[in-house]
């Protein structure tokens, strides 16, 4: 803790000096920067503005030059258990071939490339190849539907899409290329000139001559070396879409220099990554965790990491533990949802209990994506960490680029359920609605008082929305608004995140906007008149999606209600993706509304939870509706 305090003091005494020092130590610059922070156009902050670099050079070439060419960069384990590895030299060569291939198709600096592929060495190489030529990638999670994929392609104006014929998860072959075809056919994606297709299963897929290119054929003719495009530090490295409180997902834009710095720095300090570690982050590259802690952070440090194609429950719920044993994983980073579902599985079946496996290689455990409840924390600590591994409960967001509040292992005394203290240099605080600091022990709104290098730069194509969402006038535009509530412990000052303060749900660690799901439901114009979506607590997924629906026909009951609910669930799955399917759907003749017509969501939240309504309902237009909605329980 003395070392932690020293870093915090260094940042407090000379904020720019602190970040400048770390940026020189961790990032290799082509042209060194002379200025750390430009805040003249706040909140559009610029970091290391006059420096140039290449992120892929930092993650690959630099390690080969340091003598790590033969070191394993990636251990890939396929769904069926087959293992393939790539050394730094091999990953560099693969990235260069793909970068050359993209260039040969005319893709250049500043172009956007959408990547829609499952967990694979190709996926990581595709992101690195974009970074190498200065193209801005936007990875879309393989579980998103054609409609969601189309919206993202259209919003980015991508010139190319990189995908695979299929993906394999849990023993099943699932489409990728077919969904890309469907997305492009929906229209609005005229910017796309090429679709690059990796062969994963060899399945027969549609092929449009002139547009579609087999990746293996494209790569066959390409050189193993490729001069990186040296870009300015602020050059957009990637766009990643995430849910906010309005209907339309927002393209969070990250820069190159500052982002890489924080991805590398947090991997180094939060995971204490050492040369001989085997690091495993179980996130998908379609989410920000996979960007920072698979594609960029660990590779920037020359680490060895696992990339896993499959799911934690296939062929059985012992898969994670079996893989930790097999690959001697030393640092393991996963989500509370996974832990909770594996606790359930282990309690029901001795054979998949972690005690059946040798987990002695582990030294650090991590948690991310949602609050970890103390019971799951204890189980993780005892049964996975053998009571000896520190757990780093890392709070951060797509917008923050890397860890914001987290223990540093071995230094910060741990408290289950608390993400403890801000990462050195991050000025996290809790304030009230007017921006005034609240005393410890009193909950409030989580903000960050100073800009930091890996922060969101803007929302792609919508700078006004960026300002409104993250630098609202309530705080005079001065503080970054995270969108979460938090409370600090009276004695220790430790932070505990109390959950979102906006209309964003966290289902299995996935962010979902309630408005997004409502829009999907009402877009079924034949059936649905009106819909309201709220969250309710769920033992496994953290939160579950509950939809209240008014149909254009009389309220269904019994079998008919079940049938329509199933149809609507599938509809949402098609509109957004399976992760957005409501768990509960209830039908009513109407929704609880105020006399001015506003839906009273807090009442719906109580009903969804199965709670008695104790709130004031005097402003309700139609109080009888509450009883009807509660009955459909
Ligand atoms: C939540 C994922 C409590 C929070 C990296 C945040 C957490 C949202 C934690 C961001 C944590 C993430 N404890 N809550 N350790 N980590 N969250 O953008 O509500 O997918 O705002 O980024 O997840 O989700 P996102």
SSE map:
Elements: H1 2-13, H2 15-26, E1 37-38, E2 46-47, E3 52-53, H3 55-68, E4 72-77, E5 83-87, H4 88-104, E6 112-116, H5 121-133, E7 136-139, H6 146-156, E8 160-164, E9 166-169, E10 172-175, H7 177-185, E11 194-198, E12 212-214, H8 215-220, E13 231-232, E14 236-242, E15 250-255, H9 257-270, E16 278-281, H10 288-300, E17 304-308, H11 319-327, E18 331-334, H12 336-348, E19 364-368, H13 374-384, E20 391-394, E21 428-431, E22 444-448, E23 458-459, H14 463-470, E24 480-488, E25 495-500, E26 504-507, E27 510-513, H15 514-522, E28 528-538, E29 542-551, H16 558-575, E30 584-587, H17 601-609, H18 624-631
Parallel strand pairs: 4-17, 6-7, 6-8, 8-11, 11-12, 16-17, 16-18, 18-19, 19-20, 29-30
Antiparallel strand pairs: 1-2, 3-13, 4-5, 9-10, 14-15, 15-23, 21-22, 22-24, 24-25, 26-27, 28-29
Helix pairs in contact: 1-2, 3-4, 3-5, 3-10, 4-5, 6-7, 9-10, 12-13
Q: Can you characterise this structure?
A:
- The protein is an alpha/beta fold and about 625 residues long.
- The protein has 18 helices and 30 strands.
- The chain is globular.
- The protein binds 5'-O-[(S)-ethoxy(hydroxy)phosphoryl]adenosine (WTA).
- 5'-O-[(S)-ethoxy(hydroxy)phosphoryl]adenosine binds near residues 397 and 497.
- Its cofactor is Mg(2+).
- GO terms for molecular function: acetate-CoA ligase activity; AMP binding; ATP binding; metal ion binding.
């Amino acid at each position: 803790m003395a070392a932690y305090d020293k870093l915090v003091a260094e940042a407090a005494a000379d904020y720019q000096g602190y970040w400048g020092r770390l940026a020189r130590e961790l990032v290799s610059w082509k042209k060194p920067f002379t200025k750390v922070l430009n805040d003249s156009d706040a909140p559009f902050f610029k970091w290391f503005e006059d420096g140039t670099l290449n992120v892929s050079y930092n993650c690959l070439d630099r390690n080969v030059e340091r003598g790590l060419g033969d070191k394993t960069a990636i251990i890939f384990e396929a769904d069926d258990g087959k293992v393939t590895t790539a050394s730094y030299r091999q990953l560099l060569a693969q990235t260069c071939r793909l970068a050359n291939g993209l260039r040969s198709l005319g893709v250049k600096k500043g172009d956007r490339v959408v990547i829609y592929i499952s967990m694979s060495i190709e996926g990581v190489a595709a992101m690195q190849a974009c970074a190498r030529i200065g193209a801005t990638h936007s990875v879309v999670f393989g579980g998103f539907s054609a409609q969601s994929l189309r919206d993202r392609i259209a919003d980015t104006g991508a010139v190319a899409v990189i995908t695979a014929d299929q993906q394999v998860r849990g023993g099943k072959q699932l489409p990728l290329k077919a969904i890309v075809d469907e997305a492009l056919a929906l229209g609005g994606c005229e910017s796309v000139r090429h679709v690059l297709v990796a062969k994963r299963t060899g399945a027969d897929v549609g092929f449009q001559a002139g547009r579609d290119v087999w990746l293996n054929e494209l790569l066959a003719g390409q050189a193993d070396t490729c001069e990186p495009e040296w870009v300015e530090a602020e050059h957009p490295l990637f766009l990643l879409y995430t849910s906010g409180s309005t209907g339309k997902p927002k393209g969070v834009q990250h820069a190159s220099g500052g982002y890489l710095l924080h991805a590398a720095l947090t991997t180094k300090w939060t995971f204490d990554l050492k040369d001989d570690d085997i690091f495993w982050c179980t996130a998908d590259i379609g989410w920000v965790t996979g960007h920072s802690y698979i594609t960029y952070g660990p590779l920037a440090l020359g680490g060895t990491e696992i990339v896993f194609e499959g799911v934690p429950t296939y062929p059985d719920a012992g898969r994670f533990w079996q893989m930790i044993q097999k690959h001697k994983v030393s640092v393991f980073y996963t989500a509370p949802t996974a832990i909770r579902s594996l606790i359930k599985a282990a309690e029901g079946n001795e054979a998949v209990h972690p005690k059946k496996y040798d987990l002695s290689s582990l030294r650090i455990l991590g948690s991310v994506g949602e609050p970890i409840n103390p019971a799951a924390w204890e189980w993780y600590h005892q049964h996975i960490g053998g009571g000896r591994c520190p757990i780093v409960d890392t709070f951060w967001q797509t917008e923050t680029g890397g860890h914001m509040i987290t223990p540093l292992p071995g230094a910060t005394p741990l408290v289950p359920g608390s993400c403890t203290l801000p990462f050195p240099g991050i000025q996290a605080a809790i304030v009230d609605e007017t921006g005034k600091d609240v005393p410890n022990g009193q909950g409030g709104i989580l903000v960050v008082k100073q800009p930091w290098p890996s922060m969101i730069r803007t929302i792609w194509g919508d700078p006004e929305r960026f300002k409104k969402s993250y630098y609202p006038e309530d705080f005079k535009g001065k503080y970054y608004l995270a969108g979460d509530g938090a409370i600090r412990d009276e004695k220790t000052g430790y932070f505990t995140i109390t959950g979102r303060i906006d209309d964003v749900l966290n289902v299995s660690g996935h962010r979902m906007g309630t408005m997004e799901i409502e829009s999907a439901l009402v877009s079924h114009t034949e059936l649905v008149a009106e819909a309201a979506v709220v969250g309710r607590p769920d033992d496994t997924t953290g939160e579950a999606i509950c939809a209240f629906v008014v149909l254009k026909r009389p309220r269904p009951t019994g079998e008919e209600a079940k049938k329509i609910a199933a149809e609507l669930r599938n509809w949402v799955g098609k509109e957004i993706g399976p992760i957005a399917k409501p768990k509960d759907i209830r039908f009513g003749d109407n929704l609880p509304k105020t006399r001015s017509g506003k839906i009273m969501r807090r009442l719906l939240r109580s009903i969804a939870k199965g709670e008695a309504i104790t709130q004031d309902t005097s402003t309700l237009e139609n109080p009888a509706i509450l009883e009807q909605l509660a009955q459909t329980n």
